[in-house]
Structures are given as C-alpha cells and as structure tokens.
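Why should sequence recovery work at all? Because a backbone constrains its sequence more than one might expect. Tight turns favour small or flexible residues, buried strands favour hydrophobic ones, and helices have their own preferences. The token representation captures these environments compactly. In the example below, the structure is given first.
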C-alpha cells in the first residue's frame, strides 16, 4: 500500500495486489470487504498486478509502486 496524490484529500491509500492463481477475487470484492471491516478513511483503492516489482534480492521496489501511483493520479486528473 502506497499513498496516491489526491487533489481533494491530499493522499489516498492505493493497494497493489497480486491475486492467487485461479481466484475469483476482484478489486470490487476487495473494496467491499475493506468497507465492511475498515474505517472509511483507511479503505484503499486497489490495483491488480500480475506480479510486484522486485529487486534482485527479493524485496519489493516500493519506489516503482510510488511512481505507478503518481501516474495513476495524473491520468485521473487529466480525465477531470
């Protein structure tokens, strides 16, 4: 989970998720579960990925996820 810039709220959580093979889970399913079990300000947006960006030593490249979140925010801002 990384912050995504948001013009109205400053930042919103954005969760990058890799689903288990042959799962029927969707971003909407995850969002619905989150709304039922989390405070409203903590409910993230979800982005489904095939795989997380990893370093050669097996750590998640969070910087790349921050960049993706910023790109998503820029696309959403351009649509407004």
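From this structural description, the recovered sequence reads:
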């Amino acid at each position: 989970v990384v912050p995504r810039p948001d013009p109205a709220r400053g930042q919103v959580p954005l969760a990058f998720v890799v689903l288990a093979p042959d799962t029927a889970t969707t971003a909407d399913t995850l969002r619905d579960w989150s709304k039922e079990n989390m405070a409203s300000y903590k409910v993230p947006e979800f982005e489904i990925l095939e795989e997380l960006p990893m370093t050669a030593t097996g750590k998640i490249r969070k910087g790349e996820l921050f960049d993706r979140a910023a790109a998503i925010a820029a696309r959403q801002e351009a649509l407004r």
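A few observations help interpret the result. The chain has a mean pLDDT of 94.
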